[in-house]
């Protein structure tokens, strides 16, 4: 796993073998999300639209959105609402303005209740229209005569003066009188057209024309993040972190996984690999007796990063592997000698393989002389945390049987040291692996040779079995 790419099959293996732990971690994350929702009270958001008449450029609309959410507008709205315990500074963080298509400014207000959110949006929109109209209109009282209203008054006075001049002209039908009145009417028409164009071009007339498109709608749901969203986010976050933690631990795994690496860690020769049939065989991890029940419930007593067993090659192929291991044992330990078979106490696959080796060693159809007989095997369990091997009595050495990929180099070295302390030489290593059988065995198709009771012990006496 440390050198392989992370694939979907790896993620699926985590889900399949650690689903209890992942479910509990997700539940804890949901509880954390619920606790976070208690720290953040629910809020409600609604918005009011303000239409701006005339032609507006994009940068001018952005300016208007800044004005709508400015302190000058929000402070006036806060003074008008006069909510207890809510200051103008608090409302500034609860008001937002955005520009939409069609010269529309959307003013959003957020509050702790739907009614307050509606009141806040409406009041800010009202204050914004008033403030913008004051900026664009006749708010410059220091220069009133120079403004548009003063110019209109001058035009009205000029029209009156033109009327007086027309009345004072020659009332007769002389050519001079008619021409004078015609010129005065042309002047009056020109002034009226000029005022009309001035009104159309005056930004104070057009851009001050803002209309609020009705009151804000009463919110029917909480603004995000809602309590449900916080709970779901907490569960998802913890779930993803748990999966990433599994992957990170697997990437950092430096356990020997190949047969040569395991044999090198034990300082012995590799005698072969054997298969153990059974799809439900699991690699159990070590744990204290006090936490064994909890680890079993959470699935922590089973390794998840061990590959799925491969299909079996058949009963004949499996027995051939065991016979070859026994043959290599005969070559390394000639004569009818005794050997200890050292097996980790939590390795179920290794236990099955050791039992089958004992069976094959007892059933020796190929032996023709006493010098070619298989050695007598006695199985002993050792704790990987504190390995202890029985002292040497009549045994000629020790044979280590274990699974691949679940023990560290330090643990394998501990077994080798325990064998050396007891006076046993590690004559070889057998690596066992689980395989899937093609069909379940029935009572009618049971194997001919069943494993006899195996002597298992962890005592220091180490008598012959």
From TrEMBL:
Signal peptide: none annotated. This is Polysaccharide chain length determinant N-terminal domain-containing protein. It holds the Pfam family Wzz. Keywords: Cell membrane, Membrane, Transmembrane, Transmembrane helix. GO terms for cellular component: plasma membrane. Residues 438-465 are annotated as: Disordered. It comes from Streptomyces formicae. Residues 6-67 form the Polysaccharide chain length determinant N-terminal domain. The chain crosses the membrane at residues 21-40, 230-249. It is a multi-pass membrane protein. It is found in: Cell membrane.
